[in-house]
């Protein structure tokens, strides 16, 4: 893509801002900040990736993946920032999800052990797991309101915190995984995923692009399951105070 | 007699009213097998007091102890196995009536006392209820009684009963009263029972705790409380409640 073509893409931002002004949505500042941040962040990561791909240092790959996990943990943790220790649990969950998934991909030689494969696929895994974590926490917040009576009833009967919140955690796990599986059911029919589209635009054979997209969809399903189940397990006690009281929703 | 449960200068503020306590300085004792009713006008914090006693909420100051051991020295689950709160709004857990009755057995991996559960269900007038029915479909009164039976199957040493007969017809109410009296006798279970029904208080308790003006104003024998209340607040409370129909048959 030429610089001119890239500059022309700003026309879409202008359309968005004009619509916001015309409809008095008050989103102009948000749109402007989002535009600048997206452009700067993507250009920066472009240069970083260019450097990493050239140097091929494993330590740099690990550093980038850890950075992704840290940012993702902080972002997903916003949904429950009143819960002490939640970001640490999310970080740990993302680290395990990434390790299991990437470990299998490399061990089974599904992808090549090069930065060109590891970093983008890690980004997809961590990004998707961040969304699953956020969905899980949002659902848990709703559970703390809606199922408070149920949880407290179990507590009054001598249940441990883990027993008392078990049903709620299970419902939140299910609810955070469903969008991933819904996406699998409609992919190709309703939406063409970004990675596949990008490959085709960049000149890859559609069938080759589809093969990679299938790989990504399957990876996302397992990473969603690992993330939701692990986060549900290691965060169960955090919804209670150290005195065993259920926290407010 | 050694106290089963002690409350020492308990004070609670509500977040929305930080300048004035809901109640303060609540000090009292409960002995094993003691039957107490907790009386007082609405808004005195009786339910909140019970929730604090069952470790569902914390007080702002003061302490509670079970067997002389402060609550901080207990695991909350072990405390709640002995001090069981039965809420005014009965909550049925997902599943059938039987699943609800089996809750204690499932939680604590102990055998289900099916025969006892059937006896208790009969005692509260639910002998004909289908145990496979979804518990959520029961009426308010039925849920209330199933919740009570579910709690009794825990065999707690202290029951905290929050207006547990509020949604029952007179016949069912009497059945529950009889059951709780005989259960307390048989199991040596103490209870603290919040009620607005003075006749019920006279029937089911040996001791009355009376709350007014954010304090526990009286802890006296039931007969004495109704015949010679020692505070003006209690006298006017009895007078007011009696006029509204809750006459004590002392």
TrEMBL record, chain A:
<feature type="transmembrane region" description="Helical">
    <location>
        <begin position="88"/>
        <end position="111"/>
    </location>
</feature>
<feature type="transmembrane region" description="Helical">
    <location>
        <begin position="34"/>
        <end position="53"/>
    </location>
</feature>
<protein>
    <submittedName>
        <fullName>Putative ABC transport system permease protein</fullName>
    </submittedName>
</protein>
<feature type="transmembrane region" description="Helical">
    <location>
        <begin position="59"/>
        <end position="76"/>
    </location>
</feature>
<dbReference type="Pfam" id="PF03649">
    <property type="entry name" value="UPF0014"/>
</dbReference>
<dbReference type="InterPro" id="IPR005226">
    <property type="entry name" value="UPF0014_fam"/>
</dbReference>
<dbReference type="GO" id="GO:0005886">
    <property type="term" value="C:plasma membrane"/>
</dbReference>
<feature type="transmembrane region" description="Helical">
    <location>
        <begin position="214"/>
        <end position="240"/>
    </location>
</feature>
<feature type="transmembrane region" description="Helical">
    <location>
        <begin position="117"/>
        <end position="138"/>
    </location>
</feature>
<keyword id="KW-1133">Transmembrane helix</keyword>
<feature type="transmembrane region" description="Helical">
    <location>
        <begin position="183"/>
        <end position="202"/>
    </location>
</feature>
<keyword id="KW-0472">Membrane</keyword>
<keyword id="KW-0812">Transmembrane</keyword>
<comment type="similarity">
    <text>Belongs to the UPF0014 family.</text>
</comment>
<feature type="transmembrane region" description="Helical">
    <location>
        <begin position="6"/>
        <end position="22"/>
    </location>
</feature>
From TrEMBL, chain B:
<dbReference type="Pfam" id="PF00005">
    <property type="entry name" value="ABC_tran"/>
</dbReference>
<keyword id="KW-0547">Nucleotide-binding</keyword>
<dbReference type="InterPro" id="IPR027417">
    <property type="entry name" value="P-loop_NTPase"/>
</dbReference>
<feature type="domain" description="ABC transporter">
    <location>
        <begin position="5"/>
        <end position="238"/>
    </location>
</feature>
<keyword id="KW-0813">Transport</keyword>
<dbReference type="GO" id="GO:0016887">
    <property type="term" value="F:ATP hydrolysis activity"/>
</dbReference>
<dbReference type="InterPro" id="IPR003439">
    <property type="entry name" value="ABC_transporter-like_ATP-bd"/>
</dbReference>
<keyword id="KW-1003">Cell membrane</keyword>
<keyword id="KW-0067">ATP-binding</keyword>
<dbReference type="InterPro" id="IPR017871">
    <property type="entry name" value="ABC_transporter-like_CS"/>
</dbReference>
<keyword id="KW-0472">Membrane</keyword>
<dbReference type="InterPro" id="IPR003593">
    <property type="entry name" value="AAA+_ATPase"/>
</dbReference>
<dbReference type="GO" id="GO:0005524">
    <property type="term" value="F:ATP binding"/>
</dbReference>
<dbReference type="GO" id="GO:0005886">
    <property type="term" value="C:plasma membrane"/>
</dbReference>
<comment type="similarity">
    <text>Belongs to the ABC transporter superfamily.</text>
</comment>
<dbReference type="InterPro" id="IPR050086">
    <property type="entry name" value="MetN_ABC_transporter-like"/>
</dbReference>
<protein>
    <submittedName>
        <fullName>Putative ABC transport system ATP-binding protein</fullName>
    </submittedName>
</protein>
